[in-house]
Amino acid sequence: MYRDLRISYELKKQIAKILQNDIHDTRINKFSNITDIVISKDFSYAKIFIILSYKEEKSKNKNNSLFYLNKTTEYIRYVLRKKINLRKIPKIKFFLDSSFKEGKYISDILNNLKIKKK
Q1: Which of 4, 56, 72, 111 could form a disulfide linkage to 52, CB 3.0–4.6 angstroms apart?
Q2: Quick one: 97 exposed, middle or buried, by C-beta within 10 A (0-12, 13-18, 19+)?
Q3: What gap in Å lies between CA 82 and CA 54, rounded to an integer?
Q4: pLDDT digits 0-9 by tens, 19-40
Q5: 68-86: b (≥16 Cβ within 10 Å) or e
């Protein structure tokens, strides 16, 4: 369990650095925040959840950004091989993290219920 957390943390940190420093594609936002990584038990697959910038969220470029991020996964794995000493670098897939939106939606519903009760 502890090893899983360490590897997950290191992957998250290194992928964030790679997105900021090593990818020079203007279609990919360098400041996308990685919120979570879910790694399979055998470390062969990793789901990376990201939040795009507010500007990208509003401009309806979410799918384009995600598409181009997922097109660079082989390059990200290539750079990870140099930075992390793992026997097997997991295959990467990026997903949009909607948990903050869902949390805000639920919070708004609860606040509305409190207001109506008074």
Answers
A1: 56
A2: middle
A3: 32
A4: 999 888 888 877 788 999 999 9
A5: bbeebbeebbebbeebeee
CATH topology of domain 2-117: GMP Synthetase; Chain A, domain 3 (3.30.300)
pTM higher than the cut 0.85: no
Sign of CA pseudo-dihedral 53, 27, 63, 45: negative
Q: Please tell me the chain's helix, strand, coil percentages from 3-state DSSP, rounded to the nearest 5.
A: 55, 15, 30
| Residues contacting 73, CB < 8 A, separation 6+ | 91, 92, 93, 94
Q: Is the pLDDT of residue 112 over 90?
A: no
Token pair of 35, please? 């919120």
**Domain range list for the chain:** 2-117
94: enclosing H helix or E strand:
strand 91-96
**Residue among 43, 37, 49 nearest 8 (CA):** 37
